[in-house]
Design a protein that fits this description.
Radius of gyration of chain B: 20 Å
Order of helices and strands of chain B: EHEHEHEHHHEHEHHEEEEHEEHEHEHH
CATH superfamily of the largest domain in chain B: Thiamin diphosphate (ThDP)-binding fold, Pyr/PP domains
Distance between the termini of chain A: 39 Å
Largest interface: A-B, 16 and 12 residues
Number of helices of chain A: 11
Number of strands of chain B: 14
CATH class of the largest domain in chain A: Mainly Beta
Order of helices and strands of chain A: EEEEEEEHHHHHHHEHHEEEEEEHEEEEEH
Oligomer: heterodimer
Structural class of chain A: alpha+beta
CATH topology of the largest domain in chain A: OB fold (Dihydrolipoamide Acetyltransferase, E2P)
Radius of gyration of chain A: 22 Å
Largest sheet of chain B: 7 strands, mixed
Shape of chain B: globular
CATH architecture of the largest domain in chain B: 3-Layer(aba) Sandwich
Number of domains of chain A: 2
CATH superfamily of the largest domain in chain A: RNA polymerase II/Efflux pump adaptor protein, barrel-sandwich hybrid domain
CATH class of the largest domain in chain B: Alpha Beta
Helix content of chain A: 25-40%
Number of helices of chain B: 14
Structural class of chain B: alpha/beta
Largest sheet of chain A: 7 strands, mixed
Strand order of the largest sheet of chain B: 3-2-4-5-7-6-12
Amino acid sequence: MPSLGADMDDGVLVEWDVKPGDRVSRGDIVAVVETQKGAIEIEIFESGTITRLLAAPGDTIAVGAPLAELDGPAATAGETEAAKAAPAPSAKAAAEPAAETLPERPAAPTIETPAVAATAREKTAPAVEAAPAAKAAPAGRVRASPAARQLAAERGIDLAGIQGTGPDGAVVRDDVAGGKAPQPAPGARPAAPTKTAETTGPARRGFDVDEMRKAIAAAMSRSKREIPHYYLSHTIDMRVASGWLDELNAQRPPEERVLIGMLLLKASALALTRFPEFNGRYENEAFAPAPAVHIGMAVAMRGGGLVAPALHDVDRLSLEELMAKARDLVARVRSGRLRSSEFTDAGITVTSLGERGVDTVFGVIYPPQVAIVGFGTVAMRALATENGVDAVPTVCATLAADHRVSDGRRGALFLREIDKLLQVPEAL
Amino acid sequence: MSEEITYREAAGAAIHDAMAADPRVFIMGEDVGHYGGTYAVTKGLLETFGPERVRDTPLSESGFTGAGIGAAMGGMRPIVEIMTVNFSLLALDQIVNNAATLRHMSGGQFNVPVVIRMATGAGRQLAAQHSHSLENWYAHVPGLRVLAPATVQDVYSMLAPALEDPDPVILFEHVMLYNRKGTLDRSAAVDLRSAAIRREGRDITLISYGGSLWKTLEAAALLAEDGIEAEVVDLRVLRPLDADTFLSSVRKTRRAVIVDEGWRTGSLAAEISAQIMEEVFWELDAPVGRVCSAEVPIPYPRHLEEAALPQVPAIIAAARAALGKQGEPA
């Protein structure tokens, strides 16, 4: 059972998409799991043949507990990569190079917590989490005192990664108060305390609004408590971009048209390749830049709440690909079918108000990310241009960034870079 | 003005001073007069106050306890001494069915201002019929006030307000306390409501009463050498429990161990633990610990008797366990 959020203790298996004997490759969707964030499609991180399913639909499975057995150890070069990405089963193994981890793995590796360690950069964090949990709570529940849980809930801190000093290694209040909070995987909302089995109906799909509210509250409170935000705002002249896009869309049927938001996303992604300090995670008092441009796209939910699942490699997608992926993502958000990696991979969030928004949005950084870019509504506004004061389409771009990692000057250059890129839309 | 005095002397002085102050006060019980009391608490009182007010009784706990209750209803302020809590079971009917209920059943027409003193606890090799700690049996009963003075000051100062209480008061004197010396200020007043913090600390709350208090304080001193600052709460009053005091201490330290010479099952320690769970669960950093007597009739041989009772090493071990520390201190 993968951890799809730092506070996730368990999940309910909704369905298997594979059966014993099926061959699977890395990235295949093998199961659907119900969590606080809704039904999540679980991707497998190793290739092989499913030999045995260890859980049945309806079962509540603790994070880290095996869901199924997989035959055929990763042997090819490609699969080595997969194994590297897969979580190390223990702190010891995680600390070692992936190549050394491989021989230690049993011939029939179980599917373990793939999502928390979806990329190599995350390897140490989940390993720290796994060790105490395994020792103290075989049921997968973190052993933590009531006082520790209370404080952790107040502060939106994940208990799973804290080394306990209490009885039997339990996490106690001082461990939470003084200890460094482990960061939730990017894209994953630190969730409120686990749902009870009562509220976790395996048949239920979609999102629990109350639980999501709690998760947002925890993440945003933590953000405002821990992250020294600074804010920049910049008005971008969208005449060229709007004109170019209108022309492009005029030749296309409605279903193939590209929304202006994709230009904003793509420009942000390209700018990020030049300003890596806005894309990554701040953890344990250090910033780790993200190895790729995965952007969390804030999507508002009908009925309240929002999620920011990751669009992967935005800098390398064409506008059409990006549009297709965004449409797919929004549709799956609405239907409550997100994939595990989408919850864990974003290094920055972009929030775009769309056509019916307002001028400006000042974002709250989603920890452990270090920045959030906001775009207000693109609309006709008065702007001083070379012709005097004109009514032209503009968008107000904002940046809220973590002052521990970057400074206003770089932030300003980053916003200007987005502006510059938007002036050459055909290059996007 | 304070004096160094034994617990026995303080208990006797309290009775003496109460009898001198109020002619309605008298004492009755087995061997309280000519023999001077089984634990020599009443020594000398017969000579001072005469056989009318220092009355030796037959070996009939139910009879003389009932007589005391009747005298109280009739306007006297009797002190009934029962040799040991084990024997008080013979008077349980009088205490539970009469003393504790008559005010209620008479619609408030009759109060029962009796004070019933009894020895409790083990440690003197008196074997299984004279050594038990059944305080919680009485602490269970509405209508009674139950006191467990652990200090010289308390055993002296609690008696006067107990006699003033219009309702029955049970006063437990632990047998291992009689020879303990302490400081007494006869003019100091104490209340019959509150628990006392006998030692301040920030790391763990040790809750105890009566004879176990001193073992608990000794354990706290040893824990301090290991850097663990234990707060020691002396319950003093077992009914009604002063929950505010121990709860606020546990709120501060987030850990509690209860030291209670009663048997673990159904013990006062269990009640206190339950109240902690009910009131401060979310403040806790460890399960509440209990150090109680082994669930056996208290044995006669010294080494077995000691093994059956809460002792300092067990208190230290429980405190360390609550703090997540294994084994012996370094």
